[in-house]
Amino acid sequence: MARTGNKTLQAKLVLLGDMGTGKTSLVLRFVKGQFSEYQESTIGAAFFTQVLSLTEATVKFDIWDTAGQERYHSLAPMYYRGAAAAIVVYDITSMDSFVRAKKWVREVQRQANPSLIMFLVANKADLEDQRRVGNEEGEEYAKENGLSFLETSAKTAQNVNELFYEIAQRLAKAK
Ligand code: GDP
Ligand code: MG
C-alpha cells in the first residue's frame, strides 16, 4: 500500500472465490450501485477503482476482479502481489463454493503478505430459502482462521457498503 498524499492511501484489493458466487456483482454494487440478474460470468473489465473518504483518511481502492481465471481454481501470484486486502466470496446456496472458499483462504494465506486484511464473505444472503451453508459455519471458520466475516447480498445491497467501509477503516487505522 502506497501513501500518495497526506492522508490518502492507495490499496490493492483482490476478490477471490468460485465462479458464480457474485464477486463481480459485489464490485458493481459497490462501485456503481447496480445489480443484474444476468451478470455475465466473464467480463472484459476486471479492474475498478473507487475512492472512499473517511474521517481518518481517503482510501483509493484498486479493485482486482477476476475475468474468468477462477474457473481453473488457481490464480497467478501477481494477482495477490502487493494486495492490502482480499475478499474471499462464497455463495450461501452452494456448499461446494464454501469448501472452495476455504481453499482460496489457504492459498492466499500461503502466498500473500502477512499483514493482508482478509474478509470471508457469504454472498446471496437474500436466497435464504435455498441456503446450504449456515451462518454459524462461515462465522466459525472465519474466527478460527483469523478472518473477518460478513453475510452480504449484491442483490439487496445488504452489507455491501459496510464490507468496503470496514476494510477502508482498517487500512486507515493500520497506517
Ligand atoms: P462471479 O462469477 O463470482 O463474478 O459472479 P457474478 O457476479 O457474475 O454472479 C453470478 C450470478 O449470481 C449472476 O447471475 C448474479 O446476478 C447472481 N448474483 C450475484 N450476487 C447475488 C446475490 O447477492 N443474490 C442473488 N440472488 N444473486 C446474485
Ligand atoms: Mg466475475
UniProtKB/TrEMBL annotation:
Keywords: GTP-binding, Lipoprotein, Membrane, Nucleotide-binding, Prenylation, Protein transport, Transport. InterPro entries: P-loop_NTPase, Small_GTP-bd, Small_GTPase. GO terms for molecular function: GTP binding; GTPase activity. It is a lipid-anchor. One of its GO terms (biological process) is protein transport. It comes from Clitoria ternatea (Butterfly pea). PANTHER family: PTHR47978. PROSITE patterns: RAB, RAS, RHO. The lineage of its organism: Eukaryota, Viridiplantae, Streptophyta, Embryophyta, Tracheophyta. It is found in: Endosome membrane; Prevacuolar compartment membrane. The keyword Endoplasmic reticulum does not apply. The keyword Glycosyltransferase does not apply. GO terms for cellular component: endosome membrane. This is Ras-related protein RHN1-like. Belongs to the small GTPase superfamily. Rab family.
